[in-house]
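Figure-free illustration: sequence to structure, shown twice.
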Amino acid sequence: MIVATPRLVVDEFSPGLAPSVAQDLLAALRSLESRCAVVMTDQFVAHALQVADSVLVLRRGQVAYPGPAAEMRTEEIERMYSLSEDRKVRTLVKE
């Protein structure tokens, strides 16, 4: 019997939350790293980079950057998606 890796999708969780609540949720996501894959989108790039292993930035439906989160800085991602009309950053976390 093959068991699939558990996955969690988190979409834009931080807008409207108090900063302390957002940090608590990020800590909870970090605690899941050994138990499941997490795919997260968030407009606050710094939040995503706190927990990400890898990043996938989409611009106009095309991949603008795929790679390790450790090699990416918030400013670089913000620059990439500020060039986009849809202004969405999608971040792949805990691949």
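We now fold a second protein in the same way, so the two outputs can be compared directly.
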Amino acid sequence: MFENFQFADWIGAAGVALLLLAFAMNVFGALDRQSVWYSLLNALGAGIAAYASWLIAYLPFLILEATWCAVSLIAAFAALRRPDPSQNDMSAP
């Protein structure tokens, strides 16, 4: 099966692997869906998968993955702007 993989297949597989890694880490509690790392993994995976879709000229998945990438980047920026709750030290006078 893998001997028939083309360049676009390997690129697409890498992107999907990153998406699945983020998903699995979230499901098993290793990565919070509100974290910047979760959003960045999704953005990177979706961006790579979008590139693979572009390589094979498959517009439906190009639109899907590009949108996924854009939404994930927006979420990453939002996570960076969110105040860190651990910085709220109530013990100071």
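Summary for the second example: The chain has one domain: 8-81.
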